[in-house]
Prior knowledge:
This protein has 500 residues and is an alpha/beta fold. It contains 15 helices and 20 strands. Strands 7, 8, 9, 10, 11, 14, 15, 16 and 18 form a nine-stranded mixed β-sheet that branches. The chain has a six-stranded mixed β-sheet with strand order 1-6-5-2-4-3, sandwiched between helices. It has a three-stranded mixed β-sheet with strand order 12-13-17. α5 runs antiparallel to α10 (295-310) and α8 (235-241) packs antiparallel against α11. The protein starts with a strand and ends with a helix. The chain binds ligand BES and zinc ion (2 copies). One zinc ion binds at residues 275, 277, 325, 352, 354.
Amino acid sequence: MQINVIQGSLPEIECDALIVNLFEGVTDPGGGTGAVNKALEGLLKIELIDKDEFKAKLGSISILPTYGKIPARKVVLVGLGKKEDFDLNSIRKVSAEAIKACKKLKALKVCSILHGASIDTLSASECAQALAEGAILAAYKFDKYKSKKSDTDDDEPKVDINELNIVEFDHNKISDIQTGINKGTIIAQATNLARDLANEPASYLTPTKLSEVAESIGLECKVFDKDEIEKMGMNSYLGVSQGSVQPPKFIHLIYRPDGTPKKKIALVGKGITFDSGGLCLKPATGMLDMKKDMSGAAATLGVLKAIKDLKPDLEIHGIIPACENMPDGNSYKPGDILKAKNGKTIEIINTDAEGRLILADALCYAVEQGVDEIIDIATLTGAVVVALGNACAGIMTNKQELVDSFVEKIKYSGEKVWQLPIMTEYEEQLKSDIADIKNLGNREAGSSVGGMLLKEFVGDTPWLHIDIAGVAWKSADKYENPKGCSGFGVRSIVYYLLNH
Ligand code: BES
Ligand code: ZN
Ligand code: ZN
């Protein structure tokens, strides 16, 4: 789907579906929707609003045939919800619902009003960005392995929307709208790359395949193989990988801006391409989804891909320890002691708490890059799913200002986070009788304890940990998130980086 802006008047536009909008409580539409209603001789108001069928709840949809009164074949009216609650996140949701309705109508050419254009505090560019993000994210489908491509349950053949045009009357706004569209397209496509990678079966998306994808992004990229990983002293990471026939790959991508960077930031993503639990084998139901245990790595690649095009004044390092966690005669065992890159020894209590072991070495590596801050993103703990469900990711830090600034900067990214505590009271859980620390506590405050193990490896570098175990996968279609792997983290981290 190609998104563009065109100058023109909504009622005069020829297309298969014309998207207009309405705030809750409005009975007499104005602006672009009003103009379309007028051209339709009031039918929009008579049929949809006065008959009280359409309450304009956020994302609600009503469709009106145009009976040849205007060149558009159908009008898709989308509800904007209450004006006082409306923001950029609403635009993304509204755009998502509208585009899904147009897909159902099998529209090839879609034109849309710019949602939010009537709100003084919102710029045309940011409204267009949110609209583009919502449309591209909602139109996503992972159907590579389906022989019959369909959007509906009744197996009707899938029809892809060819073009979506934002229609703007004022030619002074055209270039701002195009800028927003470009930015939104880059961010949404990067999210879709992360979704694709996480949705791929683990037997296809191996650590080697992941490293090839990283190399194809077109940034400076180093891929370290097993011998090099060993030379770097990453024995905690190697311990996890040793039960698999798939060789580990340590990936380091670098984006360097033109000129001096304002800041150097490392992004570290958990890249377990399949988590069977290792010798502490997971039950079948718990293992089913574990191809997604590289969602942190997928988000990291998505962010780097977007950043390459969006070009912020920051130096950004994407670091991914990739491997499988498998049971085998060579597997690491409960009771083993692994020595991480910084010399700390870790007693293995459970081989299924492997994410923290590979991240320990990757975080040491990130610190050695001399960065100003480190963000890690990982499907780290089942406990975060219990604590927060799938509405938001859990975040932790060793520097409160970092969480505060992150939360502020990602407000309109459409992704939510909630801070979990790091407390001295929990330190006891990581104490080992025979090593410096152990890899698992007693399951109380499991996400905090997982995060606190990571903290042992970042030294004084400001660090933010994002546990995405609950949000990496959506169980049902909702607004811009289709069922399946979500690509969570791409949008929030890109928003964070761009707002510097
Ligand atoms: N990859 C899992 C965490 C996870 C759980 C991700 C659910 C996505 C959804 C992690 O490696 C793991 O297995 N954690 C275990 C550790 C256990 C030994 C306490 C967990 O949290 O259940
Ligand atoms: Zn595990
Ligand atoms: Zn895992």
